[in-house]
Write a structure and sequence with these properties.
With about 140 residues, the chain is α+β, with helices and mostly antiparallel strands. It has one domain: Beta Barrel (OB fold (Dihydrolipoamide Acetyltransferase, E2P)), CATH 2.40.50. Helix content is about 15%, strand content about 35%. It contains two helices and six strands; from the N terminus they run αββββαββ. The protein has a six-stranded mixed sheet, with helices on one face. A hairpin with a 5-residue loop joins strand 3 and strand 4. The chain is globular, with a radius of gyration of 19 Å. The protein starts with 13 loop residues before the first helix and ends in a 16-residue tail after the last strand. The structure holds zinc ion. The site of zinc ion has 6 residues, from strand 3.
Length: about 140
């Protein structure tokens, strides 16, 4: 027999509701042609994807404000150069706000190379966890 737990929405904290929502969310590959700009919260960062023949790159899963999710494969040079150093220096992590705009393509300065896809990335780190003194007073 299968037991189905019915969660009462009223009993859930916003955090729980958010977490539950994630289990039902599909992270579809980001297509800048359809959605040139987005802003959302970083849900996951996975290294080592090698789709598309661009070499290994990160996939960043993003929770969008409308409840949908997307997966951004960071293989284009101008996107990589803005994302990878931040991940490696721990300046981009799960929970941070991220905004990305695809600015179209620009002819490569190297003759014979494909046009470059241009991106602009903005990141706002999540607030650090509240710290407390040993007597329980919050650190301002
Ligand atoms: Zn990929």
């Amino acid at each position: 027999m299968r037991i189905r737990i019915i969660l009462m929405a009223d009993n859930l904290t916003p955090e729980m509701r958010e977490l539950l929502g994630r289990t039902e969310r599909e992270y579809v590959g980001w297509d800048p042609e359809i959605l040139p700009t987005f802003v959302g919260t970083v849900a996951d960062i996975v290294p080592g994807c090698d789709c598309g023949g661009y070499g290994e790159h990160y996939i960043i899963s993003v929770d969008l404000p409308d409840g949908n999710g997307l997966a951004m494969h960071c293989f284009h040079t101008t996107l990589r150069s803005q994302i990878e150093p931040k991940i490696k220096q721990s300046r981009l992590g799960v929970g941070d706000l991220i905004a990305v705009s695809h600015k179209g393509t620009k002819d490569s300065s190297v003759k014979g190379h494909n046009a470059m896809n241009m991106y602009s990335v903005a990141i706002k780190p999540k607030a650090p966890p509240q710290q407390f003194f040993s007597d329980g007073r919050p650190v301002e």
